[in-house]
Every structure is written in structure tokens, then in C-alpha cells.
Amino acid sequence: MAALACAPGRAQEMPANEQAELRAGLSEAGSSQIEFIRAIERHLQKYSRTSQRAELERALVKASIEARDSRRIVLYGERVIEREPANTELLERVARYLLATDDAENAKRALDYAKRLEAAVRSQAELGPGTAGAAAQWEQRQILLGKALVYQSRATGNAGQTAAAVELAKKSFTEAPSAESAREIARWLERSGRTAEAVPYLCDAFMLSDSQAEAEGRVKDRTRLGEWQKKLPMSDAALGAQLLSAFDRVRKLVDERKARLRAMDPNVFATEPMEFVIQGVEGDKLELAKLKGKVVVVDFWATWCGPCRAQQPLYEQVKQRFQGNQGVVFLNLSTDEDRSLVKPFLAKNGWNKTVYFDDGLAGLLRVNSIPTTVVFNPRGEVSARMNGYIMEKFVDMLTDRIQQALGEK
């Protein structure tokens, strides 16, 4: 916290006396988040024309989020948004907290922020399928888009336009099916006097609420369904049939989402190394699962890595020792972020080898430095790992580890 007062680039702009007072105030706040917030608020009250207002209000928003102070999140979030109109995190949070009550004025403000959130999300450039991070980016984009439309629905409904609220909630469910959007559809259908139409959507919400975070929402959904069952009235068999239909619908939605994510990144749901599919420099694909039963030696490297280039001839010596052994496979995996650099590098340096991209495997294995060599035994388990190398010992050390892995059948 105290680093805010003396961070490089800020001290030169803030007068010495003001800087000293801010540093003292933050020091007194200690580790208390609320005292940190109050210290900055006092500073802004005294130095209303401070050159660091934008930075300090940004710090206030961050601290308010950590303290879960909804009033201050809205107060300072709106000020930061004025300067950062495409800040999707704050647009989402401010809209959400403004809708914590049914207040009409807050709903009007929330609707504006929710529309701006939708516009900001839709304007973001998307990564192409097969690009690292494409699946995660698309997933996050859809979640935010779904929230933006849910908030628009809630704000519109709070303004008395229930029919429009239903349509906005349905649009959200189409973009990003969620318990929240299904619940929103049910809410406004029920308030429009169309309870029978609302039941299937609340059943969807009940089935979609399968996470720990949604446990409380699921209990509320079950209670509401019980109330509606008596109101309509509806037999247990009829309600059971609705829930079974909802299960089938939700299962289909989940499968479609997973299929789309896998099309963007075949490894998006991989939790074990041998579940990965890696792409070669020439565009070919390799399913690591097909290598089970063999010892797989993986060399993580990059074009910019000097030690990797020095290790290369040593690695080739080890390959020569196992030439003809069908039980050992050597893989060279590039960790380069810019994949376009790899093929020209290989040609320029005359490296005659098959190279694949790590495609997230380095992240799963927590490869934080290169070169790193990982040896998998025939069961697909990590048998050995060498971070870096000792020049005069590398060939013998890696040879020994491969021999050891061959015995781990």
C-alpha cells in the first residue's frame, strides 16, 4: 500500500510536502484496507487539485473491490470510467452494484453502463482459432457479454418494461447460457403474470447452478419452483418432467460450448500432459496419447534462448545414443510466443529437426525457465526433469535418466 506514495515516476510530479503527508497517512493505515481507503480519501479532501487524483482514485477502486465496499466501488468506479471508458472490469462491477436495489435512478445509470460494457466487449479483437489463449479469451468475452445483457434486462425490468426485459434476458442466454440469465428470464416472465412460461427457465437455472458459488442460488430456485408448483398448480410428476427436460437442454448447451472451445484450443480441458495435442511447425498435429508406452523426452526451448542453442548439439548426441530404439521418442517444443520466428530460425541455423509448439504444455508443467528437459516414462508420468544443464555432464545425465525411465513400465 505504502508503495503508492513513492513509486517511480510519481514522486517527481507530487510536491514533496504532499508526498510526505501521503506516505505518512498510508504508513499509519498499516495493513488495514479500510484505513488505507480513508487515508487516501483524507488526502484527496485536503489536496483536491492533486496531480495524482487519477492514480489515487484508481487505487481507491482497487481497494474498495478488495474490501467489497459496493458504495465506494460505484463512487470511485464511475470517476475512473470517465477517464477509462472501455474499462470492462469496472463497467461490469459498477453496473452490477447499481442494480443491487430496485431503485429506478440507479437502474437508469446501470443500463447506461451495461450498454457501454456490451459495446466495449463487442469491439474487442478476437484471437483466431488455434492461437494461444483464444479459447480462454472467447470464454471470458462471452461471460462479460452475457452479464452486460443480463444487467440491461434487470435495469429495463426495474424501469417497468418487463416485456423488453424478457427479450434482453433471452438474448443473454443465447449469447452465454448461464443460471443468471435463465433466472432473469424467469423473473420477468413471472412478474408479467406468465408463471407457467417461467417454469422451464427456472428449471434451466436450477440445472445450470452446479458450482459451489451457485449453491445458494440453487436453493432459492428450488424454493421458488415449489411455490410456483402450488400456485399453478402442478403435480410432482409434471415438475419432475420439466426438470428432466431442463437437464437434457443444459447437457446439450454444455456439450456445444465444450466443442466450440476445443475447436479453438484442443487442449483447453487437458489436465494431464499425455492428453495434449501439439502442432508442428508445418501445421501437422501430434496426439501425445499415441506415444504412451514409450519414453518421451521433451526439450523446451526458444529461438531467443542462447543456452538453448548451446545445448542443442548435446541433445543431438543423446538422440544418437538411442537411434534405432523404437521405445524412445525425442520431441523439440518451442515456447516462442511469436510462432512465425521458428521456421526461419531453423532454416537459418540449419537445424534439421522436427519441431512442435508447446501449445500450453509448458504452462501445465510449470516450465519457468529454458532450456528444460522433461522425461516421461511409458506410463505417461514425469520420470525426470532437468532445468538447465551442466555442459560437461548433460549427455551422460540425460542418458541415465532415459535408461531409468525405460525401466519404469
**How many strands appear in the DSSP assignment?**
7
Helix content: 55-70%
Mean pLDDT: 91
The CATH first-level class of the domain at 273-406 comes to Alpha Beta
Largest sheet: 5 strands, mixed
The string of secondary-structure elements, in order, is HHHHHHHHHHHHEEEHEHEHEEH
The helix/strand class is alpha/beta
Architecture of the domain at 273-406 in CATH?
Answer: 3-Layer(aba) Sandwich
Runs in which pLDDT lies below 50 for 5 or more consecutive residues are 5-12
Strand order of the largest sheet: 5-4-3-6-7
* Shape, per Cα inertia axes: globular
Taking all Cα atoms into account, the compactness measure Rg is 28 Å
Question: What can you see in these coordinates?
Answer:
The protein has helices spanning 16-29, 33-46, 53-67, 70-83, 88-98, 104-123, 134-158, 162-175, 179-191, 195-208, 215-231, 236-264, 306-321, 342-349, 361-364, 394-406; strands spanning 277-279, 285-287, 295-301, 328-334, 355-357, 372-376, 382-387. With 409 residues, it is α/β, with parallel strands linked by helices. Strand 6 and strand 7 form a beta hairpin. Helix 3 runs antiparallel to helix 4, helix 7 (134-158) packs antiparallel against helix 8 and helix 9 packs antiparallel against helix 10. Among the domains are: 193-264, no CATH class; 273-406, Glutaredoxin (3-Layer(aba) Sandwich), CATH 3.40.30. The longest helix has 29 residues, at 236-264. The strands form 2 sheets. The protein has a 5-stranded mixed sheet, covered by helices on one side. A two-stranded antiparallel ribbon has the order 1-2. Residues 5-12 have low confidence and may be disordered. It is globular, with a radius of gyration of 28 Å. Helix content is 59%, strand content 8%. The protein starts with 15 loop residues before the first helix and ends with a helix. The chain has 16 helices and 7 strands.
